């Protein structure tokens, strides 16, 4: 598959400063449980979950629906507190919503009345970033994600893939050291999704951002990630963590026929089959 347009960035300048060569885990989840109590029922969403993600690592999370994947991302961002256990982000306990992460949701969640440029700039406005600095950064991201020429288009004038690029730009605007992605490509058709996978991989190689990606696609997980966390059905626990021993530079077509791709995918499929059977 060919690459999309988008200038190559100076990787050192793009790197999140506070993690450069620091050698500490970017995310450290230790023995976490999450229980939801509602009027109708008590739900244990996560139980006994531990996961360390190194700086600059790309980790994918797969598991049956309702096993607590979104809950896990919310814990890392501080949108939710665990019932027990600890979550640390960039060597600091997570006790409140954190502004130093980027978050991409399943739906692009763009404001219909704002242009591409102004949807991306929203992140800068929320952070009261000086406008000249923000405009330069928005422009840089538009180039990096191949949105050049669509700066003034409105969301309804964009394809689903382009809308997701805009939300990716918005999430990357403040150069977050950690990027959380919750099924970002779930609503796209298969081919656009492959294209976005290639794009995301390239952008990640440039930014060196640590990524936690939730996905239902085994191929997406294996193509993109350094490690894949396979979770069990509710209460969600870590069934197994699969190392993906593929080269860092991954051509899409070549990766798909790589024996390591087959091995990792096969193992994940096996584990997910077992989880389904237990449901
Ligand atoms: N705010 C909440 N109040 C009560 N229960 C909740 C809440 N949020 C999540 N849950 C429950 O916790 C469990 C895990 O939810 P979560 O959204 O994390 O699953 P998921 O793995 O992301 O599923 P999917 O793949 O369908 O997105 C589910 O049973 C869900 O109903
Ligand atoms: Mg979810």
From TrEMBL:
PROSITE patterns xrefs: ABC_TRANSPORTER_1, ABC_TRANSPORTER_2
Class of enzymatic activity (EC top level): hydrolase
One Pfam match: ABC_tran
Residue runs in coiled coils: none
Keywords carried by this UniProt record: ATP-binding, Hydrolase, Nucleotide-binding, Transport
EC number(s) recorded for this UniProt protein: 3.6.3.-
CDD domains found in the cross-reference section: ABC_NrtD_SsuB_transporters (cd03293)
Molecular function in Gene Ontology: ATP binding; ATP hydrolysis activity
Superkingdom to which the source organism belongs: Bacteria
InterPro entries hit by this protein: AAA+_ATPase, ABC_transporter-like_ATP-bd, ABC_transporter-like_CS, ABC_transporter_ATP-bind, P-loop_NTPase
Alphabetical list of PANTHER family matching this protein: ALIPHATIC SULFONATES IMPORT ATP-BINDING PROTEIN SSUB, TAURINE IMPORT ATP-BINDING PROTEIN-RELATED
Name the UniProt record assigns to this protein: Aliphatic sulfonates import ATP-binding protein SsuB
Lineage start: Bacteria, Bacillati, Actinomycetota, Actinomycetes, Pseudonocardiales
């Amino acid at each position: 598959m060919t690459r999309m347009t988008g200038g190559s960035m100076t990787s050192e300048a793009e790197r999140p400063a506070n993690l450069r060569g620091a050698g500490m885990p970017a995310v450290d989840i230790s023995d976490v449980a999450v229980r939801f109590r509602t009027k109708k029922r008590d739900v244990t969403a996560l139980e006994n979950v531990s996961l360390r993600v190194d700086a600059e690592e790309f980790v994918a999370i797969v598991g049956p629906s309702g096993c607590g994947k979104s809950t896990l991302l919310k814990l890392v961002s501080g949108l939710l507190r665990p019932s027990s256990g600890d979550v640390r982000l960039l060597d600091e306990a997570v006790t409140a919503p954190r502004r130093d992460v980027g978050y991409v949701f399943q739906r692009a969640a763009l404001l219909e009345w704002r242009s591409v440029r102004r949807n991306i700039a929203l992140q800068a406005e929320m952070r009261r970033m000086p406008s000249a600095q923000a405009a330069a950064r928005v422009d840089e991201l538009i180039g990096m994600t191949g949105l050049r020429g669509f700066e003034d288009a409105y969301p309804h004038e964009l394809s689903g893939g382009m809308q997701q690029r805009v939300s990716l730009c918005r999430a990357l605007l403040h150069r977050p050291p950690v990027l959380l992605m919750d099924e970002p490509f779930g609503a796209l058709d298969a081919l656009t999704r492959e294209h976005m996978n290639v794009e995301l991989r390239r952008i990640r190689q440039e930014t060196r951002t640590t990524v936690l990606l939730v996905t239902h696609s085994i191929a997406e997980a294996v193509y993109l990630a350094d490690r894949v966390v396979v979770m069990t059905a509710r209460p969600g626990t870590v069934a197994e963590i699969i190392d993906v021993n593929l080269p860092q530079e991954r051509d899409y077509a070549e990766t798909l026929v790589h024996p390591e791709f087959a091995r990792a995918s096969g193992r994940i499929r096996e584990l997910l089959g077992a989880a389904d059977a237990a449901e």
